[in-house]
From TrEMBL:
This is Histidine phosphatase family protein. Keywords: Signal. InterPro entries: His_Pase_superF_clade-1, His_PPase_superfam. Transmembrane segments: none annotated. Residues 1-26 form the signal peptide. It comes from Aureimonas glaciei.
Length: 198
């Protein structure tokens, strides 16, 4: 009887250990699998890439920053420029049919959009950061969804900031992360996937 209980205990421990190993392996594999699902979602008709600007060390902007004067702003570093170039290359390699590139007017967003190398970049003030003006979040978010509704079947990359993406999707993205979104009939954005680029 004691031997049977011991054998059952060992079997239970072995099962638990196997489950722990499978869970650990899933944790190692799932980010890449999630990214591939995100790329597939981005290739699908009706979706767009909502992207946080690439790596720009720091938070917010210095006091007295001015749009159009990059010397007064927080900017991409070398790692950020390289990250943006890799993201653009990955989009081209995967055949993402980008037709429109829209960007915040902040230098770190505009530089990210330029470094993607996906075509002409158009300033979109609705994508500007409202980090220092949270009261404008609803208006900016509405303007973004309205702009997407004008694109018909053209796929867009929108380069913006963490606060804007969080307001639109509820997600706190990493630098350079892409949230794959699709406009819905009620004016909101549905999240179809995530692509972590580094």
């Amino acid at each position: 009887m004691h031997r049977q209980a011991t054998a059952a205990a060992f079997a239970g421990l072995a099962g638990f250990a196997a489950l722990a190993v499978m869970t650990a392996l899933a944790a190692l594999v799932s980010p890449a699998a999630a990214d591939e699902a995100g790329w597939a979602a981005l290739r699908a008709p009706g979706t767009h890439a909502l992207m946080r600007h690439a790596i720009a060390p720091g938070t917010g902007d210095p006091d007295g920053f001015r749009i159009g004067d990059c010397a007064t702003q927080r900017n991409l570093d070398e790692a950020g420029r390289a990250q943006a170039a890799r993201i653009g290359a990955a989009m081209r390699e995967r055949g993402i049919p980008v037709a429109v590139v829209l960007s915040s007017q902040w230098c770190r967003a505009r530089d990210t959009a330029d470094q993607l190398g996906l075509g002409p970049v158009e300033d979109e003030p609705a994508l500007n950061s409202f980090f220092d003006d949270r009261g404008s979040a609803d208006t900016a978010s509405r303007q973004v969804t309205e702009r997407l509704a004008t694109l018909d079947d053209r796929k867009a990359v929108l380069v913006t900031h963490q606060v804007n993406i969080t307001a639109l999707t509820g997600i706190f993205p990493a630098s350079g992360e892409i949230i794959v979104v699709a406009p819905e009939a009620d004016g909101r954005l549905a999240v179809r996937g995530r692509i972590r680029t580094d």
